[in-house]
Specification:
about 350 residues, mainly alpha, 14 helices, elongated
């Protein structure tokens, strides 16, 4: 049975004449509102308006793809998703004085669909890598791979792409950047993709830049399983030392800093203290401060040790160890040679 409308709810407005598929009279003011909100920096509200524009435009994308028979080559859901992901870029470039939004969306959707058809029959993929090395990643020829559609297979592999952020704005920005990198290689513009993610999804420019870098790494990880790609110096380090704890350093510092550390400390063994050792060091320093402010006689030291829940002997040992550790000669900068270029005595 059809769902009955509540009498308190307003009746839905009938579509304007000739707007059964694409309600231009509703989408046009929404597009202008979206532009205004972005210009004033209200990105969260702009994202809600963008969602409404995409929802109202989707029936046109579906009908257009079916009418032009693009679905004979590429699945309808893939075509529609390609158009939806590019709505932000279309809105950024649309100028009301140059034409109606229906004509602009139709033209842009056609190019998006044709791009999907080309990629569906293409086995070679390219990605721009991070860092100062701007070499491109090219897949090698694999005749075995010609037996199936690698583009569709790679699109399916995107379902295995997970991130550690649960905010809808952040996930939306990541999906947008993925589409920019995967489906817009010929006209790819890094800065435009970052700006589009920031403006459309209400995140900061710094966050958008970070997500762009993260998406590159994530796509490369997915892509490694498909084709052989040339490795960067960082890639070689990660793979060659994959079964060591050294690779974990990349979580804390960039590759250039790691290279500097290798140049300075390469070949040495550095013992990293544990959390328990740091805690014990702090306890010893607190004991040292207490003893330092006392008369330092055995009775006073024993009383301080009792308050710190340790023996007089360990309290005395802690005090002596801290005397050495807090020696000011262990820090600072001292000239190795004096004014006459002779070693300091």
């Amino acid at each position: 049975m059809p769902k009955q409308r509540n009498s308190s709810e307003p009746a839905p407005k009938p579509p304007a004449e000739g707007e059964h598929i694409f309600p231009a009279s509703e989408i046009t003011p929404l597009a202008l509102k979206w532009k205004d909100l972005n210009a004033r920096g209200h990105h969260t509200q702009a994202m809600l308006v963008l969602d409404e524009i995409i929802q109202k435009s989707t029936p046109m994308f579906e009908r257009f793809a079916q009418h032009e028979e693009y679905t004979n080559t590429v699945e309808l859901s893939v075509l529609v998703s390609a158009a939806q992901e590019k709505v932000v870029k279309w809105l950024l470039k649309w100028e009301p004085k140059l034409g109606k939004i229906f004509s602009w969306f139709s033209k842009c959707a056609k190019h998006a669909f044709l791009s999907e058809i080309v990629k569906a029959n293409q086995y070679k993929k390219r990605y721009h890598v991070t860092g100062d090395n701007l070499e491109k990643y090219y897949g090698t020829i694999d005749h075995e791979s010609d037996r199936h559609d690698l583009s569709a297979e790679f699109d399916r592999s995107l379902k295995d792409l997970f991130c550690r952020w649960g905010s809808p704005q952040e996930i939306g920005a990541i999906r947008y950047l993925v589409e920019c990198l995967v489906h817009d290689l010929d006209n790819h513009n890094k800065q435009a993709a970052i700006r589009g993610a920031a403006y459309a999804w209400g995140i900061s420019m710094d966050m958008a830049k970070f997500f762009y870098s993260w998406v590159l790494i994530a796509l490369r990880d997915l892509h490694y399983a498909k084709v052989r790609v040339p490795f960067t110096e960082e890639d070689l380090m990660r793979h060659a030392l994959t079964y060591t704890n050294f690779v974990e350093l990349y979580q804390f510092m960039p590759h250039e800093q790691i290279k500097r550390m290798i140049a300075d400390k390469g070949g040495q063994r550095i013992k990293i203290p544990t959390i328990a050792q740091i805690a014990r060091l702090k306890e010893d320093y607190e004991t040292f401060e207490s003893v330092l402010g006392s008369d330092k006689d055995p009775a006073t030291v024993a009383e301080i040790a009792k308050k710190k829940k340790r023996s007089p002997r360990t309290a005395a040992d802690a005090y002596q160890a801290m005397v050495d550790a807090t020696n000011p000669n262990r820090s600072g900068e001292y000239s190795v040679y004096d004014s006459d270029s002779e070693p300091n005595s």
